[in-house]
Amino acid sequence: MRQIDIQGWMALDRSSAEPLYRQVYRTLQQLILAGRLLPGAKLPSIRDFAASLEISRNTIVNALDQLGAEGYLEARVGAGTFVSRTLPESQLQVSSRARPAPVPRPHSGKLSSRGRAVAALLDPAPDRPGFVSPVGAFSIDGPDLEHFPWETWQRLSGRLGRRVPRRLLGYQQDLGFGPLREALAEHLAGTRGVRCSADQILIVSGSQEALFLAGNVLLDPGDEAWIEDPGYPGVRRALTAAGARLMPVKVDDEGMDVAWGEAHCPRARLVSVTPAHQFPLGPTMSLRRRLALLAWADATSGWILEDDYDSEYRYQGRPLQALQGLDGGQRVLYVGTFSKVLFPGLRLGYMVAPPQLIRALAAARTAVDLHPPTLPQAILAEFMVRGHYWQHVRRMRKVYAARCQELVETLKAEFGPELKLGPYDSGMHVVLWLPPGTGDRDVSQRAAELEVECLPVSAFVHGGVQRSGLLLGFGRLAIEDIRPAVTRLAQAVRDVIPPS
Predict the structure, then answer these.
(1) Of 1, 93, 222, 424, whose CB neighbour count within 10 A is largest?
(2) What is 116-123+164-386's CATH number?
(3) What is 7-98's CATH number, 1.10.10.10, 1.20.1270.360, 3.40.50.1820, 1.20.1260.10?
(4) What angle do CA 485, 487, 492 make, to 5 degrees?
(5) What distance in Å separates the CA atoms of residue 329 and residue 20, rounded to the nearest whole number?
(6) What is the mean pLDDT of each run of 10 residues along the chain (500 residues)?
(7) Is 249 helix (H, G, I), strand (E, B) or coil?
(8) SS3 of 204, please?
(9) Whole-prediction pTM value?
């Protein structure tokens, strides 16, 4: 086969910042993709190639090695270097661009009924209307990342990274990293009164996965489930994905109205609830209703899904014991997350399940993703065992308590005696109630135009009409930024509700 003379095709720019070997590589790749170097064509020898371009042999070797590794060239011992007869996938994709697009065949693209229901809930507009950015003033999207002990976290990460035990590099126990589950069991017993062993804890990729697993393991399509109204949109998605028929149950100053749920949906199979700090309105579920809910579960063999998403942050008194602790762990699945305390990107959460359910839940999680990444679990376990976790929580309680106080005082000064707020003794947001009949979405949209993010309460309503209000998060809002943000918010309210 005749050797190709490609000297005339090479135009090297010796003044360019791009290395010469990359210029050779790129030019040859383009010639092959354009069809000017056909499959099977023989390239000059490395010596002749280098001499013709007046560059070093190493430059040619580096370029040809890269092309060979990517499948564009093949070397034959004693014969030389040739353009590959079997083209790499990337070349096939590029060359296909020049072909006429095939006429699409008709396809209904029909989803299952459950798939259509889930897809309808994924439109972000109902949940996040009228906001400028996920970290704007009064965002509820997460904790303060500036105060996180990054140096400590990085030191633990580096220490583990330098001496990674081989056991962490393979597949792990389906429940999650053992030392992390042991640390969690001890922590939850001391802070939330949760009664469990490490073998009852399943590590998940955030609390959303826990909600999804619980729904799919405990519910058959068509089973009824209570959800709080207003409530967390994520639980609605998870239970809808399980095929449940949802019954929105109203929330008042005592939390979910259990008697209302029993009267309107007595055959429910599962109840999802946020008793420590109801999302989004903020009340703590009264002991009277907690006991009523546990009695309902016992009488009907129902299940309670307790989402304890931010109970670490309580600023007045001690929180009531978790439902799981009151129940003894028989009918309650307790769900928690590290997103609100540490950082959302960690994507780690946990579920404490009754002994008779834990294996089924672990099997369901294994069917989805086997297990969450192990190295972050190992770092977090060290972070907890060495006391850094609880130290961080105590520090942030003071930070958030100061911000909450500043926000409430500033709101009172700006809005005067007409101001009505939801509970603000825990969590990282406050609800500002608007006058009856006010469109909270209109106020939210106007606030967004003034670079203030405040989600409307109506975005979290699942059933009946609720009062108009705005969620004001202070987790990521520096204390010196609170007053100007409240000033802009007040302007938005005045623009929508002119003074009488």
Answers:
(1) 424
(2) 3.40.640.10
(3) 1.10.10.10
(4) 95
(5) 68
(6) 62 82 87 84 87 87 85 86 75 47 56 73 46 62 90 91 73 85 95 94 94 95 96 94 95 96 95 96 95 96 95 83 89 95 92 96 88 89 95 95 96 93 94 91 93 93 82 93 95 85
(7) strand
(8) strand
(9) 0.75
